[in-house]
Amino acid sequence: GSTLQEAAAISGRYFGTAIAAGRLNDSTYSSIANREFNMITAENEMKMDATEPNQNQFNFSQGDRIYNWAVQNGKRVRGHALAWHSQQPGWMQNMGGTQLRNAMLNHVTKVAEYYKGKIYAWDVVNEAFADGNGGGRRNSNLEQTGSDWIEAAFRAARSADPSAKLCYNDYNIDNWNWDKTQAVYRMVRDFKSRGVPIDCVGLQSHFNSGSAYNSNYRTTISSFAALGVEVQITELDIEGSGSQQAQTYANVVNDCLAVPRCTGITVWGVRDTDSWRASGTPLLFDGSGNKKQAYTSTLNAL
Ligand code: XIL
């Protein structure tokens, strides 16, 4: 294949990017995105604060801009994200107890129902585990409603949109030796054993000096896959430049391709200048839209 999406399709996989609605009028940006990628994630526009700015008053205008652009260009959409401690609307941030639990479940239900039948996979719960040692849950207002909030969110999402794959998505779960990875692994194993609906694990894969790519990444992917879930690389970006960065991108692709249930890769933005990382050059295109070494190594590895 001569583009990322064509090359990924040879093995039946997708290659995606995060899209920001506010950049779609930039023709360099949108033409690269249209040419190279066939799975689209809204970078911010389907999050809780964007879709429910006031309680039980939903606003899908920005999410729909991205959804419509994707579908009009023949692409599929990953939904991101239904329940998360971050980017909550103000009204939710100080809620607790039963009120918050019900508000969260209502949000999951209403957003998943609105997009019913249209989303390839939803990140149902994002970043619920704590960093560091111990493998504990993140202390958030959602966790304080009871540690079963995650499975409650997954059950609500399944009821609202039975055809979407339901994913748990997180960062720092790519290194197999980390406690956080093992804790998420145990949760997914538990969900599968008890019939809690879960179809996929999203490895965000924001690689930088503090959490670098590790050669055990393939073990992480294959271990989750062996639980009977798909693995999707959902927010890939790799700090660095030149041949070292290019090699790491190739390693990530090779690790995914080695595991049949690793079904697709999404990078978190188009050009370096579109990245959420304030400084650095973590993506596949430079600020002018030129293909980087990392692009070529990724394409060749697919
Ligand atoms: C980031 C966006 O890229 C930024 O524009 C926003 O300001 C903050 O969120 N993990 C996630 C993503 O799941 O939603 C985050 O996206 C990056 C980290």
Describe the structure.
The protein is α/β, with parallel strands linked by helices and 302 residues long. Helix content is 39%, strand content 17%. 48% of the residues are buried. It has an eight-stranded parallel barrel with strand order 1-2-3-4-5-6-8-9, surrounded by five helices. Helix 6 runs parallel beside helix 7 (149-160) and helix 10 (242-257) runs parallel beside helix 11 (293-301). It is globular. (3S,4R)-3-hydroxy-2-oxopiperidin-4-yl beta-D-xylopyranoside is lined by residues 43-44, 126, 204, 235, 276. This is Beta-xylanase. Belongs to the glycosyl hydrolase 10 (cellulase F) family.
Give the helix/strand layout:
Elements: H1 4-9, E1 14-19, H2 27-36, E2 39-42, H3 48-51, H4 61-72, E3 76-84, H5 90-93, H6 97-114, E4 121-126, H7 149-160, E5 165-170, H8 179-194, E6 200-203, E7 206-207, H9 217-226, E8 230-238, H10 242-257, E9 262-267, H11 293-301
Parallel strand pairs: 1-2, 1-9, 2-3, 3-4, 4-5, 5-6, 6-8, 7-8, 8-9
Helix pairs in contact: 6-7, 10-11
Tags for this entry?
302 residues; alpha/beta; eight-stranded parallel β-barrel; globular
